[in-house]
Amino acid sequence: MKQLIIDRYEGKYAICEDGEQKYFAIEIPELPEGAKPGCVLVISDQGELTLDLEETERRRQRILEKQHRIFGK
Question: Which of 3, 25, 45, 71 could bridge across to 13 with cysteines, CB 3.0–4.6 Å?
Fold first, then answer.
C-alpha cells in the first residue's frame, strides 16, 4: 500500500504527493467521497483509493502543534 497526501486541486485534478516528494495528478471524480487538500489517501495493491482518516487527523494535529510553538496561541 502506498500513501499520498492531497496537496491541492488544479482544474479537474487533485495534485498529490508521496513520501518521496513525487507528485501525481488524480482526476477529482476518482477520489473517495470527502477527500480534500491535506487528506491522506491510501492506494491498495488493487489500485483502490481510500481515505486514512486517522493519519489525516494525526498530521493535522502535528501541524497545529508546530504552528503553536512557532507563533504562540
Answer: 25
Walk along the chain (73 residues) and give the pLDDT tens digit of each residue.
Answer: 799 999 999 999 999 999 999 999 999 999 999 999 999 999 999 999 999 999 999 999 999 999 999 998 6
- Which DSSP helix (H) or strand (E) runs through 71? helix 53-71
| Cβ-contact 45, 2 below 8 angstroms | no
Exposed/middle/buried for residue 13 (C-beta within 10 Å: 0-12, 13-18, 19+)? middle
Separation in Å, CA 40 to CA 1, 11, 37, 52: 12, 20, 9, 5
